[in-house]
């Protein structure tokens, strides 16, 4: 349920990524907010209890004591902040468009208009299997037929017919193609029509679809399978596209196993296998997945020396004895743009600017809470970096009542049944059973929702066509 987000009438020369982004988002000027696109406020806490003071960051923002409900960022504002941060990063980085082979361009965004390199079709062709004929019936059928992929056949003479295949080049002087089911031959090998034929029938004239040089698709178009087919037909081997944002995933926690059954207080890592394909589905190039454990120095090195556009961490965003994300961000002088979001699950998520063109998204360690962080912060940031069109918002009625948080938004897995969304039972922060069966997440406002109430839905990336999904 997304819109291709294409725009017409844009300039026809190649654009840099920043301009392509502006076109896709319909905003050629600087984003709203502060002059450099930074968030106007910095949140503070990711716990319901107060976190101890961590000191100022390099932009002078400080954390305050008090109830985190009043300091965490509202859920819609958190998503807007992530988009705004990505726009600022694009302006800072000015990453050049890249040339991608057709088999690698699925899910990317056109950074240059797609103009036809040839007429389509490039010559008059037969639209059907049958006979190419010239003049009035009956027609004498020549011995040699006309097949696709062969050079121009000999012209027809008046009263002559030639067997022809779909897609084959039309002989000169052809007046009509008679479909196989619309003609019969007699014992003298003469062709007779079995129904009325119209001049030019079932002939695809040269340039019927487009002429060489025609603009087929504008900048900002999402490359779908159909776009790849059109590009190939129009003569392209490569496409000029916005490059994928580069992402590194840092999996934190000494308690995580990568194989076997849980034992002795150790549990299986669910996020390591889940995050890379999910991030690819959001348009990212996942460069590395690094398991760090609860080692603050290793985390500092990984974050400080990363050259990815986005660093994604799992767990460690709270204030426990082995929650090292905040201390590392303070140590490297990062700017916290979002520090806690008024959403359940996923309250302790965060977004930090590491450099002008580099960000970190800290996901909570609980699996469904991490999914909430992906859709709240990573999705709008990656979508904007990749110049992908924003999905069209839509709502459906909830079949059942959904319990709400008193103050925060809730994201609840649902399946779609007809014109209603059915909330799923397994929706706790540590549960993946619900989201594994879900079609979408319902956005439930503070206080909950009653049966029949309209709720905004967030589609999962593979339920809307799977553009860019790669599970290998």
Automatic annotation (TrEMBL):
A single GO cellular-component term on record: cytosol
Signal peptide positions are none
Which parts of the chain span the membrane according to its record? none
Q: In which pathway does it act?
A: Cofactor biosynthesis; molybdopterin biosynthesis
A GO biological process of this protein is: Mo-molybdopterin cofactor biosynthetic process
Q: What class of enzyme is it?
A: transferase
Residue ranges with Basic residues bias:
52-72
Family the UniProt entry places it in = Belongs to the MoeA family.
The identity of this protein, by name, is Molybdopterin molybdenumtransferase
């Amino acid at each position: 349920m997304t819109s291709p987000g294409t725009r017409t009438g844009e300039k026809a020369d190649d654009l840099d990524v920043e301009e392509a982004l502006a076109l896709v988002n319909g905003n050629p000027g600087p984003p709203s907010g502060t002059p450099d696109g930074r968030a106007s406020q910095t949140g503070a806490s990711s716990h319901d209890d107060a976190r101890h003071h961590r000191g100022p960051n390099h932009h002078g923002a400080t954390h305050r004591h008090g109830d985190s409900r009043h300091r965490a960022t509202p859920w819609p504002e958190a998503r807007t902040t992530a988009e705004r941060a990505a726009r600022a990063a694009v302006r800072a980085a000015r990453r050049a468009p890249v040339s991608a082979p057709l088999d690698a361009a699925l899910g990317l965004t056109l950074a240059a208009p797609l103009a036809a390199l040839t007429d389509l079709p490039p010559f008059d062709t037969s639209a059907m299997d049958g006979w190419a004929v010239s003049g009035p019936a009956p027609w004498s059928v020549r011995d040699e037929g006309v097949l696709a992929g062969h050079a121009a056949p000999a012209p027809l003479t008046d009263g002559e017919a030639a067997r022809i295949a779909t897609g084959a080049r039309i002989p000169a002087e052809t007046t009509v193609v008679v479909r196989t089911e619309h003609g019969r031959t007699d014992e003298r090998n003469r062709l007779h029509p079995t129904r009325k034929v119209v001049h030019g029938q079932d002939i695809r004239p040269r340039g019927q679809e487009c002429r060489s040089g025609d603009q087929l698709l504008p900048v900002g178009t999402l490359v779908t399978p159909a776009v790849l087919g059109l590009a190939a037909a129009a003569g392209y081997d490569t496409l000029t596209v916005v490059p994928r944002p580069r992402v590194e995933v840092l999996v934190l926690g000494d308690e995580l196993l990568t194989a076997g059954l849980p034992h002795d207080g150790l549990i299986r890592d669910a996020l390591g296998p889940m995050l890379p394909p999910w991030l690819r589905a959001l348009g990212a190039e996942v460069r590395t997945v690094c398991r760090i454990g609860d080692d603050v120095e290793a985390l500092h090195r990984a974050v400080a020396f990363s050259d990815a556009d986005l660093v994604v961490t799992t767990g460690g965003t709270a204030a426990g004895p082995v929650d090292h994300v905040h201390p590392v961000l303070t140590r490297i002088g990062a700017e916290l743009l979002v520090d806690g979001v008024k959403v359940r699950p996923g309250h302790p998520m965060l977004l930090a600017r590491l450099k002008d063109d580099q960000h970190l998204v800290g996901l909570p360690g609980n699996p469904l809470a991490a999914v909430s962080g992906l859709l709240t912060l990573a999705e709008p940031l990656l979508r904007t970096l990749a110049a992908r069109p924003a999905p069209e918002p839509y709502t459906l009625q909830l079949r059942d009542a959904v319990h709400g948080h008193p103050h925060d938004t809730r994201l609840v897995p649902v399946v779609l049944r007809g014109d209603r969304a059915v909330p799923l039972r397994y929706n706790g922060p540590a549960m993946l059973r619900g989201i594994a069966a879900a079609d979408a997440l319902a956005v439930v406002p503070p206080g909950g929702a009653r049966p029949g109430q309209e709720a905004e839905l967030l589609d999962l990336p593979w339920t809307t066509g799977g553009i860019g999904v790669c599970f290998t």
